[in-house]
Design goal:
Layout lengths: L13 H10 L11 H14 L11 H12 L6 E4 L3 H4 L4 H4 L4 E4 L8 H12 L6
Parallel strand pairs: 1-2
């Protein structure tokens, strides 16, 4: 059985390990500025077929913080399971943007469409101000 608890406690696919071994001794100037990121940026731009800026972020919390704070409107929140990384491990990063993490129950860490719908209805139809 595979466990997807987190990607830090799992191994990598053999092809990924082969590439990592080939490039293990290469020194680069840093994440986002190296040749591999330049190639990735080029491939992404090619597939987007649009002149865009491509920026790489170094971690999940930083990525979630940047995305959520730029996409959600001030009154919106993000839905997570009770065991979701964004709810448990991000130490209030989402709340620091002024948004709320809305928690739904899960089975084995997976939310259902029904749980999401129930969460939306509970917060959308809040009549407590009446």
């Amino acid at each position: 059985m595979y466990s997807f608890t987190n990607d830090y406690s799992e191994g990598a696919h053999e092809r990924i390990m082969e590439v990592m071994l080939r490039t293990n001794r290469q020194q680069t100037c840093g994440y986002g500025e190296d040749e591999v990121c330049a190639e990735a940026r080029s491939l992404i731009l090619k597939h987007l077929n649009h002149p865009s800026d491509i920026h790489f972020l170094v971690g999940g919390t930083q990525t979630n913080f940047t995305f959520i704070s730029s996409v959600l409107r001030p009154h919106q929140g993000v839905i997570s399971t009770e065991v979701g990384h964004i709810n448990v491990h991000e130490s209030g990063a989402v709340e620091a943007t002024g948004h709320k993490v809305l928690v739904v129950p899960s089975k084995d860490g997976k939310m259902t469409a029904e749980a999401v719908e129930s969460c939306i209805q509970a917060h959308y139809n809040d009549n407590s101000a009446e």
